């Protein structure tokens, strides 16, 4: 197995080293393995790092030992001191020589200089300091302690706690109290809601806006947008783009394959010949870890051992009648890269046994990069047997009991050890069956495709033989030559030259394994020198490493080399490596004509190779091509702009006996013109024959017949696609400019991933990233490919350096390639998935990126520059006037969108309603008529009744409270009184006490004792706004209001009179107050909206009676009924159900305070079951708690005997779009304990009318529809099928209450709309509130919201109230109670909350739903806009390492599903997004906290 670098005699470090030192050591090993440092430099630095922890060793500078032990690493990590000679040598231009092109670097510098002139300050992302510790061990450290600012977000209990804090109503954000949001929206936006714009966040946003104000480079085309559809812009071809002008190419032939008299009829025959006649000749020499020759295999040994293996495979594995292997079976070869000898024996053993070897990599862990796909290949080849060495078998991953683990995706394998001692000698009379080479498969070479799937290229025996012949002729091999191979001998050129062609020509191969190269980069040069090798097989990387280490060895000579085969010479950047290597080693005898680049491909094998030149002959020319031309697939010599030129070298001529043509890379295989880039196809007997087991793909690759421009086939010779892009230049020289797999097609232009890597590396990156560890790939987002660049960041790179490097890379790529980078991510060192020989596994990296498991430590997204195909912003149409009704423009639907509940006039009145106009009278009447009838029952967390109230008890209690108001409060009729109580019966008694005294009650949620700073200001504000003359409360709350903690939040001396109602004297009330008219005020209803507006509405006595009556009729409530309420009783319908309805209808209400559920989740459901409740009311937060908390405890519920089969209606009280997913999961979860799927429904109310819809007991079930989201943004309603793309599921919000009429109106023109339009819901009903209760009675606002008329189309001049919610009406197929078709009302969302972006109307919840789906670690999400930028805040419930994974995922999903570009992504701790008591997100509060920089985010990304 590969030894760790530095394994030769280095002392192993003590285990007790501090973590940072261990990290720095790992880092060094990595640099060594990458060739960024020599062995000597490595040892020096290692000694220096370890010095303080070892007893003083000789030769170590004593000064080094005095370093304090716990010293934290300086930002630059281990400083690379100049003491290392090697660093000084590199300082001239510390770039990766492999990709080094001076021309290119100059180009990049020029491009950057140009950018510097118009320098933009890009906003740098904000990180929490503790977040990105490079070591995964610290990934989840809680953030540093920070003082909690007194703001909205102080609702979190601890910054990192994952529990959401109990819902709290935060103080409203606007100081404009009681005024409706719409009127003062614009002024709020301009001043950042009172946030000083100098805050850190605001300046960054300003920077971002400045960068976005630049005009986009590609101009948006003008075109017509059809109203119904948003058209995604299709990139139009650039009229000035270069087009090919040459004639159609003709296929190019290689020289004929010479007939040599002694070429063998099969490769096995060559082995037999040398093995028997030249047994002592060396065949293969293996090196040990230090690079010294350790064992030489002779041809005799190779022959005898292969024979033994072949015999064993065929005869010794099974029984005689049932052999395990038959000729033609496939066998896996699993040999480490440092054991070529065992591999060679196994390979030839298989050939002699006529079984088909499939060489693969040694699996190191269960989750190797790409390992699963290798398993798929083994499965599809039907492999059941794997050959390996004893040492390798020991190193495979094992289970506890020592068995080899079942690798992910692999078939079950039987492992066979091929060490000599385990093989049986073949009997004298046994001879292998060596036939002349035919088209039967010889071996299978695996290849990984761009998507990461692994395919097996099958090579036939005849192709293997012909390929060896062609290579022998092209490379002019002669018997007994020595060659040095640094490549992987299991595949590609390494296999073809060092394992196959070598045997054909009786060569002697020295194999230099990758592990030796890591420790001694110069080893291959030394081998060439020592053995006077004639040929060396290398990659650019090996040239680069040898140059870096060259100072250590002066006396090497490369004069023996007649061929230095550079196998990745097809990489466009290889030319610079070859040049640099030549200039350094020419003085060591290297001949310029010896450098022979070649191009290879798994399918076509060797495509072309430069023949060894004649000394003194001129070297072949270079092609200097225009990058812009290349991106259009056209060859243009670069003349105008030298910055964007690509210099390529030829890879020689077509192989002997071969033929080559260039075809268009996509579509039918049409021959290219002579000045056009296409895919190189090769026709010869030497190519692969198929992808094993994949007939469909095989045909397109291995059996291509080229077509001419007319589309008819040219000849009948099939060609093989090589996967290489290139052209045939002058003198039939072949040039390669890239690979099909590395091709990125963005907006119709082709870019080569390698080119982009090289541009990135030309930006001075040595301080920031590792060279050779950059992955470039494209992802499809929003109908086009988008380029993603991922690189490994050095641990000592500072934030500023990285950010600087990233922004410069973006600019360089933009200038040179004229293409935008969508995302640039830096990941911690050593975290990208690797291929077995140390490269980056691109497809796996891409998969990690798309799954959100890449864990970047820095990320920069540039959607604004890349995404140029968004539809045009919508222009608003001019307003619709009365004239359009005449023309019929108005009604795009079939009819005007309106609906109503049952008509009150037709319903039988009972005497109660006629007799008593006021609720206070109803209570007095009940106290006389049914004094002992139980009205209220309050439960505690254990489910036990803690307080009850009969009609008489409630009446008596109310009397006492009224009398204390007269005595202590000295109040007059009409004074406002704040009721501050926890949910319970005391609150109800205080309410009726106020009515008895003629005062106006205002119920207010009490402050949260644990969180006074956030909750007390809301109480204070309502007390001030309502001008309350006194506060009624309990003793505990009274103490809290006057406590020292409260005094820090507000001035306690300024409270009005506070009266506690705990122990009241028994007093008779002289008389109960009776209002002179029902239009008099009964109570005030205050609530904070989700946009942070505090609004109080006035409810008259007439409205109260009408409301109670409508609910009584809809729910069929009467005195023998029982209902259970688990709601907050402070405002809206929750208050009415808790305090008013029981007194009016006489039914019994079981009251369950929602906060009791926090200590006993079962409380609500067990109460409903125990009391056999038929109708129950709850809030979304209660339903959510039960769904999340009890979802996996249904069995416990059953065991407790909880049964919900008696429930007829379970109603969620809400003022928002129904949360269908929540109600559906609730129904599904509790179906097992009897809950009927029809039971769950929702209500709808708003500030102007607290109860517009409520399901009730009769009437059709709530309906659901799927609507098209794209149309909804245009205020259109288009119904679609379930599962349609971009569809949204909406549910009806219960049935419209009796006496209520609704109409859908265009909020701008105030005209009615048709039923296929989305509009504002207006309501007319006897229980509509009578107006806002404001400080300055703003008459115009009152008139606009409460008494407004349609601008046209309504002869009756009805007075409507505006709900502020958008919705639509649909006529259903169901029948209402009246016998008419039922009209369903659907709520889409609050008008206040909508975001106007690009001229379209978006509902935050839709964007949030998309975002929440993208990653398992997103706990909650909220969006808002700030100066036309969309800001997305996500709560991260995973570890902080995942924070940056969310940025691209969030950006992608919003772009794909909503056609919007996210401006800022903010990642915060769980519980930071404020949620009020109704379970609604308070996005405006969040926005204010964000702008005031109070969120303490984990990460803020500003998308460019």
Secondary structure layout:
Layout lengths: L18 H16 L4 H12 L11 H4 L19 H6 L11 H16 L8 E2 L57 H6 L9 H14 L38 E2 L13 H11 L4 E6 L5 E6 H17 L14 E5 L5 H14 L2 E5 L10 H10 L4 E4 L1 H6 L18 E4 L23 E8 L5 E7 H15 L6 E4 L6 H13 L3 E4 L2 H6 L3 H9 L3 E4 L1 H10 L13 E4 L7 H12 L9 E7 L3 E5 L13 E4 H5 L13 E4 L4 E2 L4 E5 L14 E6 L6 E2 L3 H8 L17 E9 L5 E6 L3 E4 L2 E4 H10 L6 E12 L4 E9 L5 H19 L3 E8 L13 H10 L6 E4 L1 H4 L16 H5 L10 E3 L10 H5 L3 H11 L4 E6 L5 E6 H17 L8 E5 L4 H13 L2 E5 L7 H14 L4 E4 L1 H7 L2 H6 L7 E4 L20 E8 L5 E7 H15 L6 E5 L5 H14 L2 E4 L11 H8 L4 E4 L1 H11 L3 H6 L9 E4 ...
Parallel strand pairs: 3-12, 5-6, 5-7, 7-8, 11-12, 11-13, 13-14, 14-15, 28-29, 32-41, 34-35, 34-36, 36-37, 40-41, 40-42, 42-43, 43-44, 55-56
Antiparallel strand pairs: 1-57, 2-20, 3-4, 9-10, 10-22, 15-16, 16-19, 17-18, 20-21, 21-23, 23-24, 25-26, 27-28, 29-30, 31-47, 32-33, 38-39, 39-49, 45-46, 47-48, 48-50, 50-51, 52-53, 54-55, 56-57
Helix pairs in contact: 1-2, 5-22, 8-9, 9-10, 13-14, 17-18, 21-22, 27-28, 28-29, 33-34, 36-38
């Amino acid at each position: 197995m590969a030894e760790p670098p530095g394994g030769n005699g280095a002392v192993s470090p003590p285990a007790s080293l501090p973590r940072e030192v261990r990290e720095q050591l790992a880092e060094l090993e990595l640099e060594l393995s990458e060739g960024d440092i020599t062995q000597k430099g490595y040892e020096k630095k290692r000694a220096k790092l370890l010095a303080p922890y070892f007893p003083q060793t000789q030769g170590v500078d004593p000064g080094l030992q005095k370093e304090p032990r716990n010293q934290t690493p300086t930002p630059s990590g281990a400083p690379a001191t100049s003491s290392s000679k090697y660093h000084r040598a590199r300082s001239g231009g510390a770039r990766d020589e492999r990709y080094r092109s001076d021309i290119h670097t100059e180009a990049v510098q020029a491009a950057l200089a140009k950018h510097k002139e118009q320098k933009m300050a890009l906003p740098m992302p904000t990180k929490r300091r503790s977040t990105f510790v490079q070591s995964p061990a610290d990934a989840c450290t809680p953030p540093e302690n920070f003082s909690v600012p007194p703001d909205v977000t102080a609702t979190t209990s601890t910054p990192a706690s994952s529990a959401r804090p109990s819902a709290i109503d935060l103080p409203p954000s606007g100081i404009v109290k009681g005024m409706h949001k719409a009127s003062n929206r614009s002024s709020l936006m301009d001043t950042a809601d009172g946030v000083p714009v100098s805050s850190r966040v605001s300046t960054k946003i300003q920077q971002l806006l400045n960068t976005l104000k630049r005009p986009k480079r590609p101009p948006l085309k003008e075109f017509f947008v059809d109203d119904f559809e948003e058209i995604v812009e299709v990139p139009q071809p650039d009229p000035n783009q270069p087009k090919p002008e040459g004639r159609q190419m003709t296929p190019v032939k290689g020289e004929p394959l010479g007939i040599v008299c002694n070429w063998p009829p099969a490769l096995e025959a060559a082995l037999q010949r040398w093995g028997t006649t030249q047994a002592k000749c060396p065949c293969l020499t293996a090196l040990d870890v230090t690079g010294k020759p350790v064992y030489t295999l002779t041809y005799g040994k190779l022959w005898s051992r292969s024979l033994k293996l072949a015999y064993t495979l065929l005869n010794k594995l099974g029984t005689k009648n049932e052999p395990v292997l038959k000729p033609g079976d496939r066998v896996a070869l699993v040999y480490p890269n440092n054991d070529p000898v065992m591999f060679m024996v196994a390979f030839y053993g298989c050939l002699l046994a006529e079984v088909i070897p499939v060489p693969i990599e040694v699996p190191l862990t269960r989750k190797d990069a790409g390992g699963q796909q290798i398993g798929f290949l083994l499965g599809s080849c039907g492999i059941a047997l794997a050959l390996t060495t004893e040492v390798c078998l020991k190193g495979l991953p094992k289970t506890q009991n020592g068995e080899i683990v079942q690798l992910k995706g692999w078939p079950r394998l039987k492992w066979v050890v091929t060490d000599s001692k385990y093989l049986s000698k073949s009997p004298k009379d046994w001879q292998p069956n060596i036939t002349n080479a035919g088209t039967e498969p010889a071996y299978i070479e695996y290849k990984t495709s761009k998507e990461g799937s692994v395919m097996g290229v099958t090579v036939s025996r005849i192709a293997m033989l012909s390929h060896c012949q062609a290579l022998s002729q092209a490379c002019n091999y002669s018997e007994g030559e020595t060659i040095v191979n640094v490549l992987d001998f299991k595949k590609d050129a390494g296999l073809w030259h060092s394992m196959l062609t070598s045997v054909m020509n009786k060569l002697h191969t020295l194999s230099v394994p990758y592990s030796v190269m890591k420790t001694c980069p110069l080893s291959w040069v030394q081998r060439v020198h020592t053995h006077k090798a004639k040929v060396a097989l290398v990659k650019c990387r090996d040239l680069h490493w040898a140059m870096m280490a060259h100072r250590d060895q002066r006396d090497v000579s490369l004069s023996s080399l007649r061929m230095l085969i550079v196998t990745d010479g097809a990489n466009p950047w290889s030319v610079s490596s070859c040049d640099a290597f030549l200039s350094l080693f020419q003085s060591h005898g290297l001949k310029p004509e010896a450098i022979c680049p070649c191009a290879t491909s798994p399918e076509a094998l060797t495509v072309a190779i430069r023949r060894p030149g004649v000394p003194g002959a001129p070297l072949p020319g270079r092609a200097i091509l225009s990058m812009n031309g290349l991106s259009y697939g056209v060859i243009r010599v670069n003349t105008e702009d030298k910055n964007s030129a690509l210099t390529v070298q030829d890879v020689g001529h077509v192989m002997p006996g071969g033929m080559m043509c260039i075809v268009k890379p996509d579509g039918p295989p049409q021959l290219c013109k002579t000045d056009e880039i296409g895919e190189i196809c090769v026709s010869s007997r030497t190519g692969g024959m198929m992808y094993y087991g994949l007939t469909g793909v095989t045909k397109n690759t291995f059996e291509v017949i080229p077509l001419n421009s007319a589309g008819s086939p040219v000849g009948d010779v099939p060609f093989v696609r090589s996967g290489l892009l290139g052209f045939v230049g002058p003198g039939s020289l072949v040039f390669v400019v890239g690979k099909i797999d590395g091709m990125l097609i963005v907006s119709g232009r082709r870019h080569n991933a390698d080119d982009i890597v090289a541009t990135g590396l030309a930006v001075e990156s040595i301080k920031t990233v590792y060279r050779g560890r950059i992955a470039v790939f494209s992802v499809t987002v929003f109908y086009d490919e988008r380029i993603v660049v991922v690189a490994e960041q050095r641990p000592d790179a500072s934030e500023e350096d990285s950010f600087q490097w990233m922004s410069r890379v973006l600019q360089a790529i933009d200038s040179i390639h004229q293409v935008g980078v969508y995302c640039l991510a830096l990941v911690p060192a050593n975290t990208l998935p690797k291929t077995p020989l140390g490269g980056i596994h691109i497809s796996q990296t891409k998969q990690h990126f798309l799954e959100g498991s890449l864990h970047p430590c820095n990320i920069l997204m540039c959607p604004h520059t890349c995404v140029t195909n968004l539809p045009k912003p919508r222009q608003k149409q001019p307003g619709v006037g009365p004239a359009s009704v005449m023309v019929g423009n108005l009604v795009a639907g079939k009819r005007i969108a309106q609906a109503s509940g049952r008509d009150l006039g037709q319903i039988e009145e009972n005497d109660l309603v006629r007799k008593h106009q006021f609720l206070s009278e109803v209570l007095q009447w009940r106290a006389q008529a049914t004094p002992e009838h139980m009205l209220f029952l309050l439960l505690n967390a254990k489910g036990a009744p803690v307080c009850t109230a009969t009609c008489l008890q409630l009446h008596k209690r109310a009397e006492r409270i009224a009398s204390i108001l007269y005595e202590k409060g000295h109040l007059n009729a009409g004074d406002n009184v704040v009721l501050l109580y926890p949910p319970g019966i005391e609150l109800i008694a205080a309410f009726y006490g106020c009515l008895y005294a003629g005062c106006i009650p205002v119920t207010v949620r009490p402050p949260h004792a644990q969180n006074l700073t956030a909750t007390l200001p809301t109480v204070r504000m309502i007390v001030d706004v309502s001008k309350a003359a006194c506060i009624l409360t309990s003793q505990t709350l009274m103490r809290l209001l006057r406590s020292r903690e409260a005094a820090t939040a507000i001035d306690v001396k300024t409270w009005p009179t506070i009266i506690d109602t705990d122990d009241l004297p028994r007093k008779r009330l002289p008389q109960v107050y009776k209002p002179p008219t029902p239009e008099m005020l009964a109570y005030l209803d205050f609530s904070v909206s989700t946009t942070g507006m505090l609004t109080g509405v006035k409810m008259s006595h007439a409205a109260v009676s009408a409301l109670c009556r409508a609910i009584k009729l809809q729910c069929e409530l009467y005195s023998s009924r029982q209902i259970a309420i688990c709601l907050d009783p402070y405002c809206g319908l929750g208050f009415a159900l808790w305090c008013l309805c029981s007194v009016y209808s006489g039914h019994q209400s079981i009251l369950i305070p929602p906060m009791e559920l926090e200590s006993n989740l079962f409380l609500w459901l067990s109460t409903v079951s125990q009391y056999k409740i038929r109708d129950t009311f709850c809030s979304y937060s209660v339903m959510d708690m039960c769904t999340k908390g009890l979802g996996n405890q249904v069995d416990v519920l059953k065991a407790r005997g909880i049964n919900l089969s008696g429930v007829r209606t379970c109603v969620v009280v809400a003022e928002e779009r129904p949360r269908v997913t929540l109600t559906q999961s609730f129904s599904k979860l509790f179906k097992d304990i009897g809950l009927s799927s029809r039971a769950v429904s929702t209500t709808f109310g708003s500030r102007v009318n607290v109860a517009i819809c409520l399901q009730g007991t009769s009437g059709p079930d709530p309906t659901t529809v799927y609507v098209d989201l794209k149309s909804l943004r245009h205020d259109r309603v288009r119904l679609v099928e379930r599962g349609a793309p971009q569809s949204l599921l909406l549910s009806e919000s219960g049935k419209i209450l009796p006496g209520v009429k609704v109409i859908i109106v265009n909020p701008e023109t105030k005209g009615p709309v048709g039923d296929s339009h989305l509009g504002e819901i207006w309501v007319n009903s006897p229980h509509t509130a009578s107006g806002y209760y404001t400080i300055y009675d703003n008459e115009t606002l009152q008139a606009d919201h409460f008494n407004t008329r349609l601008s046209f189309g309504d002869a009756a001049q009805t007075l409507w109230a505006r709900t502020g919610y958008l919705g639509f009406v649909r006529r259903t197929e169901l029948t209402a109670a009246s016998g008419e078709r039922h009209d369903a009302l659907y709520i889409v969302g609050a008008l206040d909350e909508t975001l106007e972006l690009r001229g379209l109307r978006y509902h935050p919840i839709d964007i949030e739903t998309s975002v929440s789906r993208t990653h398992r670690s997103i706990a909650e999400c909220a969006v808002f806009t700030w100066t036309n930028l969309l800001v997305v805040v996500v709560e991260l419930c995973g570890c902080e390492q995942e924070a940056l994974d969310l940025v691209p995922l969030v950006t992608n999903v919003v772009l794909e599903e909503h056609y919007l570009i996210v401006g800022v992504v903010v990642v915060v701790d769980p519980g930071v997004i404020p949620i009020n008591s109704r379970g609604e997100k308070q996005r405006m509060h969040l926005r204010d906290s964000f702008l005031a920089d109070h969120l303490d985010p984990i990460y803020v990304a500003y998308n460019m």
